[in-house]
Specification:
Elements lengths: L2 H35 L3 E7 L4 H8 L1 H7 L3 E7 L3 H9 L5 E4 L2 H8 L4 E6 L7 E5 L15 E4 L4 H12 L8 E4 L2 H10 L4 E5 L2 H9 L2 E5 L9 E5 H6 L1 H20 L1 H12 L3 H9 L10 H16 L18
Parallel strand pairs: 1-2, 1-3, 6-7, 6-8
Antiparallel strand pairs: 3-10, 4-10, 5-8, 5-9
């Protein structure tokens, strides 16, 4: 073979290797792009350390149904409703559960959320508690006292209404804003005089420390639990939201008939003990339903009170956060 032919042959082989390498690279890129395109759709659900969503997650029925449709459920736990709805507001969640007050604060802050369902009232599922040997015997005696609570949560409204019932103003007490874990620590070391809290933290502090209920929500507040979705998601994937509510209803029906079994199933997940979980579930209502005009009107009253007390910066129209009826 001539020198010219040898050089040409070598050049050809080098060029061929480069071409194959380039094609291989393009193939990898194409496969990577295809893999990314084929990734399953996600439904991002936020839940708290309680409620039907915990049971739904534990039992796995929703995950199975959505997996059959190519949808993966991503579950994220939050310490409270306000934190959960903040995540929904910034686009980190599609669906979640919170009490009456958090959606009002979130709507006032401009969150693009919608009410998609609610549980029946649970007025005994939240209360103001005092240490077992506290000399305080009535809500009226809380004047000038320090009360721990999670700002923007259901118990914020409970506290306002219980103070009004006792003839006190919100300004008559010293509100100490703390999340549940920090509030429990402050309560036990005596840094606060009382604690406004909800189940299962309420049940836990009762069973574990002997804390006394000074007053609960019975006859004062409804204490609904709401299911909420990011509006863009609800409008685009209403069928998925409907499926979630369907599974929640099934889980509710089972839990209402099997409270002890439900408590055994979620007690390890909550980490609060079986006695506390059973006590909390004994006060729980079950039966998810569509949000009615009456429930939205009740929410509006809460929003008006919060605005009057300057707890939210502007008045809101609660029904603006409801999906249009089809």
């Amino acid at each position: 073979m001539s020198r010219y032919k040898t050089s040409s042959y070598k050049a050809y082989k080098i060029a061929r290797r480069r071409s194959l390498g380039l094609l291989a690279g393009l193939g990898i890129f194409a496969l990577t792009g295809f893999s990314q395109a084929a990734e399953p759709e996600q439904l991002r659900i936020g839940y708290q350390k309680y409620g039907t969503l915990v049971l739904l997650k534990a039992q796995g029925n929703l995950d199975k149904r959505l997996a059959a449709q190519g949808i993966q459920v991503k579950w994220t736990e939050f310490p409270s409703g306000p934190a959960l709805l903040e995540a929904l507001n910034v686009g980190a969640l599609d669906f979640g559960q919170a009490g009456e007050a958090p959606p009002i604060f979130a709507q006032a802050a401009g969150a693009n959320l919608v009410y998609v369902g609610n549980e029946p009232p649970e007025p005994e599922g939240e209360a103001i508690v005092v240490p077992q040997h506290s000399p305080i015997k009535s809500v009226a005696e809380l004047k000038g006292k320090k009360i721990a609570l999670n700002k923007g949560s259901n118990v914020h409204y409970l506290l306002v209404k219980l103070l009004e019932k006792a003839g006190l103003q919100y300004q008559d007490i010293d509100a100490v804003f703390l999340p549940p874990a920090d509030a429990r620590a402050a309560f036990e070391r005596g840094s606060v005089d009382a604690w406004a809290i909800w189940d299962p933290f309420l049940a836990a502090v009762q069973t574990q420390t002997g804390a006394r209920i000074l007053a609960d929500g019975k006859g004062v507040v409804s204490n609904h639990a709401f299911y909420l979705a990011a509006r863009p998601y609800a409008e685009k994937r209403g069928n998925v939201v409907s499926l979630v509510l369907e599974e929640l209803a099934r889980t509710d029906q089972w839990a209402a008939r099997n409270r002890k079994a439900a408590a055994k199933e979620i007690a390890p997940l909550l980490g609060l003990g079986l006695a506390a979980t059973e006590l909390a579930l004994s006060r729980n209502s079950f039966g998810v339903k569509p949000v009615s005009a009456e429930v939205l009107e009740a929410q509006q009253k809460i929003a008006d009170v919060f605005h009057r007390l300057r707890l939210i910066p502007k008045p809101i129209v609660v029904k603006a956060a409801a999906l249009p009826q089809k």
